[in-house]
Amino acid sequence: MEFTTGIRKKETVEISELLTGDYMGRNVKVNGAVHVIRDMGEVTFVILRKREGLLQCVLEEQAKGFLIRKDLTEEAAVEAEGIVKAEERAPGGVEIRVSNIRFLSRPDGPLPLPVSKWKLNTSLEAKLNYRSVSLRNVRERAKFKIQEGIVRGFRDFLYGQGFTEIRTPKIGAKGAEGGSNLFRLDYFHRPAVLAQSPQFYKQMMAGVFDRVFETAPVFRAEKHNTKRHLNEYTSLDLEMAYIDGFEDLMDLETGFLQDMLALLKREYEKELKLLDAALPDAGRIPKVRFEEAKRLVSEKYRRAMKNPYDLEPEEELLIGQYFKEEYDADFVFVTHYPSGKRPFYAMDDPEDTSVTLSFDLLLRGMEITTGGQRIHDYRMLMEKIEKRGMETEGMEQYLNTFRCGMPPHGGLGIGLERLTMKLLGEENLRETTLFPRDLGRLEP
Is 219:196 a contact under the CB 8 Å cutoff? Predict the structure, then answer.
């Protein structure tokens, strides 16, 4: 009888092991995809692409495997064996003097994109059409390692603050945000929708665990085709009970940003250098009321205010520019949005019920977060629903939670792809979305 007892030590070694272990002068096996081949005649350099980066292998004329160089092609998966040597010009400062190479697989035909180039000088459409291939480019791949670090930072920070991670359904009876931007579907002959956000569920769970969070997709059936919108994106959501005010949420998000940026600097330095990314400073984030923000940019940049209830993309850019010029701030919290523009569950300011105890966080001129304090009193919630002429069908379980009592609470949602986009200085959200879904794209 055979038994599995856990992870077995592999014969092959990884780049981190080569850099930290005592491998100099020793014979090792490594595997990877052939990223670049440089045939110099008597010597051939073969750069392997591995999960941790690039590894230089050298085929010399006297080596047993030298003749195989004529069969090598980019993107072939190989296993190489040889002696580890120090070489300051090689990636990581080490190389493998290869004695033999074994093929694990070979590509069937030419590649659709030159993934070994430093930059993929091709259109975004081409990159997205061949997404699983274009991401083999080390710079394209690095964007999503940074995105990994953002999510990792979000999770680790909230675990440290006593939050519980939850999983909420993405098929429901009613949208949490209201409006017409819903993907509707037939659910066993019953009408259903894809979730615009986990709002109802995370509020209900704030009455159970006090502090909850989720990282998951959300769906918006908006017929837009811009560089800053998608129809499916990943939202980093949290909800927190027993708050003293919506300022607690801004404090919490500032703490997360500080922790996450420190993590990226500490553990994702290689990817940041690859992308030439300059991270923002979240040490001190200014807060400005919605009306004041509009007034400031209108006066300084001589721009007429067109929409009194929301910020237009150009206004967001100007607000970001204003606070960068005046306070050297990359982030800015815009608070007290008009009540009519916020969902029914948003808490109105008791001192001025025309505005809400809510906020958006802008990063370098683009909104990346929406949050605020929620109505926790059942009667107040029902009054606002009635005032707006809303139907409660499909919200019975949500409303019954408040009938049974709820603590003061609030929360926020961060657009992961937008945050990544602005951190890395990209111009199009699709650059930082693994497999984008928009008006024209359902594949790959």
Answer: yes
What are the counts of helices (DSSP H) followed by strands (DSSP E) for the chain?
Answer: 12, 18
- Residue 267 host element (H or E): helix 247-267
The residues facing 331 across adjacent strands are 363
In angstroms, the CA 50 to CA 77 distance is 10
Dist. CA 138–CA 148, nearest whole Å: 15
CB 222 within 8 A of CB 228: no
How many residues does the structure list for the chain? 444
Using CA atoms, how far apart are residues 390 and 90, in angstroms rounded to an integer?
65
Rounded CA-CA distance 302/306 in Å is: 12
CA dist., res. 365 & res. 321, Å (int) = 7
DSSP, residue by residue, 168-180:
--SEESS-SS-SS
Rg (CA), the chain: 26
pLDDT band at 177 (very low <50, low <70, confident <90, very high): low
What are 354's two structure tokens? 């025309």
- β partners of residue 369: 361, 414
pLDDT in tens, 137-163: 999 999 999 999 999 999 999 999 999
Task: Answer whether residue 376 shows pLDDT above 80.
Answer: yes
Q: How far apart are CA 55 and CA 409, in angstroms?
A: 51
Closest C-alpha to 96, from 127, 50, 136, 147: 50
Q: What angle do CA 333, 334, 340 make, to 5 degrees?
A: 145
pLDDT by residue (tens digit) across 19-38?
Answer: 887 899 999 999 999 999 99
Residue pair 28/57 in contact by the 8 Å Cβ criterion: no
State the DSSP code for 299: H
To which H or E segment does residue 324 belong? helix 313-327
Mean local confidence (pLDDT), 1-22: 90
What is the secondary structure of 5-33 as a DSSP string?
A: -SPPPPSB--HHHHHHSS-TT-EEEEEEE
Taking the mean position of all CA atoms in its chain, how far away is CA 12?
32
Confidence of residue 178 (pLDDT cuts 50, 70, 90): low
Question: pTM of the full predicted structure?
Answer: 0.93
Name residue, tokens 């500032």.
254
Burial 144-179 (b: 16+ CB within 10 A, else e): ebbbebbbebbeebbeeeebeebebeeebebbbbee
User: Which of 416, 426, 434, 429 is CA-nearest to residue 228?
Assistant: 429
